[in-house]
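Worked Example 4.2. Consider the chain below.
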Amino acid sequence: MKFGIAIPNCHGDYADIHLVTQVAHEAEEAGWDGFFLWDHIGDKWGDEVGDPWVMLAAMAMRTQQIKLGTMVTPVTRRRPWKLAREVATLDHLSNGRIILGVGSGGGIEYVNYHEAADSKTYGERLDEALEILTLLWSGEHISYEGQYYQLDNVRHLPRPVQLPHVPIWVGGVWPNKKPMRRAARWDGVVPIGKALSFTQQMTPEQVGECFRYVRSQQSEERQAQPYATVQWGQLEGKDRGYDAALVSAYEEVGTNWWIENITWERGSLQEIRAFIQQGPPIR
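Applying the procedure from the previous section yields the following structure tokens:
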């Protein structure tokens, strides 16, 4: 089991790049395996928003081993070729430690900025964008003719450090099946329970059902490759034995990454630092 931290890039001191960078350093020192940021641009949860890509660059300079990335990026709100450059550059800056969490997104961050906001096309656009990302990361000259994106004889160098491509983890709401079928084609799945609040999490039974479905949608070749099965969870942080037992229950149903879901509802980032400094409950 590996353990990560995920925090918002918005709302109060969660948008403070200096504090976030310091906390990422402290998380690595405490033994966490990953540190991830939400990816919002104009937020309904507060006026303070930090750019996650600039934050990740700063975090990469203050850490040495911990995995870094977004959890998750609404890819259809971004130009895939620009995102491909950003992620590849970060992968070099971090010496191959970037994970790209992706989702279809939606809501005010599309509507208020007059982005295309047809929810029926989000998944289709995301699928095309993910294909473009991996084609661009190949380092070859490529052309692409899709329904939503077109490219003519372009080449992106340097390639990412991680080959054949930066790991892509797909987020989605369970029990919706379509995002889970998409996740089965990539490098990891990050399910979120339907209608759960920021302080709730899926049960081990629900998580196990989701992972079994994802696996049933994978080819034998994909099943034989490393794959991240993520629990978006919350530890109590008071009783280490209780937390270790909770993690073990999720590990038994196939979880191999525990991502600690931290938001302002659990306190400010300053207030939550002591919890992060404790490190994960199992090493």
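The first strand starts at residue 2 and ends at 7. The chain has a mean pLDDT of 95. Compare this with Example 4.1 before moving on.
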